[in-house]
Model the fold of this input.
Amino acid sequence: MLALAACTGTTGTRDNPAPEPGNPSGEPISVRLPAGPTNIDPHTTNQAIGRELGFYTYDTLLHLQNGKIVSGLATAWRQQSPTRYEFDLTDKATCDDGHRLTAADIKANFDRVLDPKTGGPFAATFLGSTRLKVAAARGKLVVDLPSPNSDLLTGLTTFPSIICPQGLKNPKALATKAYGTGPWTLEKAVPGDHYTMKPRKDYTWGPGGDTAWDVRTPTELTLKVAETDSTGANLFLSGQLDITSAAGSTQDRLRTGGEVFSRGTSRAVVHLYFNQRPGKKPADARIRKALAQAVDRMALAKIAMEGKAAYAPSLILDSAPCYDENAGSGLPAYDPDTARRTLSGAGLRIRLLASSSDLSGEVATAEFLADAWKRAGVDVTIDTPDGATAVERLFSGQDWDVAVLAQSGITVPSILTPYFSGPSAPQGRNFSSIDNPEYTRISATALAATTQKDACAQWGRAEAALYRGTDVLPLYYDVVRYYGKGVSFDIGGFTGYTFLPTSFRVTR
Done:
C-alpha cells in the first residue's frame, strides 16, 4: 500500500499536531475494521485482516518507515555473508504480562513459523524460504539462509510477529487472544463485532527508536467491524466511528462530512493472469498477447472502482522500494485491430474468473475485459464465485482460462516469485503454470544482490521478462482513502497494515 504518512517534525497543524510526548490522555476512539477475522494468530492466519490486528498487539524485528528499514525489536543488524545476518536485540522489550523478552523467546517464534506442522501460509513469502536456521545468543539472533535473499530485511519488517512465551504455550488460544509484544493490549474481543485495546504505557522500543507516546494518543482504541464502505460511511457520518475507509464513489459522501482528516493509499494491485496449463488456450503465447492487445488498460484504470482507481505500470505497489513507473514500457500496447486479426474466427472460448466479493472492482473489470474480447471475436463466459471459491478454482487450474486477481501488500517483488515460477498448483503456488526461464534466472540473481539498488535493477529486468512472455498483466491500483474526524493518523502501508499503530492523535 502507498504510504502517505507525514514525516514527524517540530511543527504541526490542528489536524496533524506537533508531537507532545507523554502518557496517552486522548479521548477513546473507534476505527472501522472492514471484516471480522476468524483467526488473529499472526503466524497461522491467512486473512489480511487477521494479520492487521496483529500489528497493534505484536512487534517485529524491524520496521519500515518512509521507505527505510529502521529498528524494532532489533536495534542493529549486519550482513556477515551473502547468507548470514546477525541482529542485536533490545533489552527493553517486555510482554504485556510483564515477562522480559529474550533472544530465546524470539527464536522460538521463528522455530514455530518454520515448522511445517504449524501450517502458517506466509513464512516462505516473507522470509524467502522455510529452511532458515536461527540461533539465539545473549542479546543476539543469527539467521542463516539456504541461499541469498536480498529481500530478507524487508520481509522481517512484517513477519514474523513476535508472540510472547505464554501464547506459544497456548497456541489454540491465539486465534482469539493476543499475547503481545507490541504497543497495544487487546482487552476485549467480540469476534465479528469489535476489538477493544489500550495503549501499553511501558512501550519504549518503537519503530526507529521511538521511545515515547504522545499525550494526544487515545486512552482506548476500539476496532468496529463494518463490512461495507456504505455501512462504514453511515457510522462515520452519524458519529459512531471516528475513522473509516472507503473506495469508489463512497469517498464522495465522506468528503462532504465537514472537517475531515484524510490519507490515501494504493492497497492492492489488480493483476490479470492467464492459465497456461497444457490444453488451455492461453498456453499459446500468441493468444495471450492478442488478449492483452485487445484491452485498453488506460481506459480501464479511469473507470475502475467507480473512477477512483489508478493506472498500474508495474506488478508491485507504487510505494515499494523497487517501484519503477517505467516498468510497464514492455507491455503489449493497446492494438484492437491486431488482436481481432489474431482472435477472430479462431472459435476461441474462454472462462473469465473474478471474485464476487468485488473489494477491488473485480466484477466490473471482468465485464470490461469480456466486452473488449467479445469485440475481438472471443466467446467469453464470466464466472464470479465468492472469494474463497475463486481461490480454490485458481489453484485447481481447471475451471478458468483468464483470472482477475487483486493482490495486496506487494511491496517486495520476491513475494510474487512463487506465483510466477516453480511447481504448478497444487504442488506449488504457481497457479497459472508460468514457465519463463528468463524470469526464473533473473529473479535468482535479484535475490543474490548485495545492495537494494542492484536488487531493484535485476527485479526490473525480471518483470520485463514476464511482459515479453505476456505471462501476467498489471491492470490498476486499488486506491482507498481513510477519513478521520477529530483525529489524525498515518498510513503504514509499506508492510501491509492499514494504520501505523502508534500514530493516532486525538485533535478535537
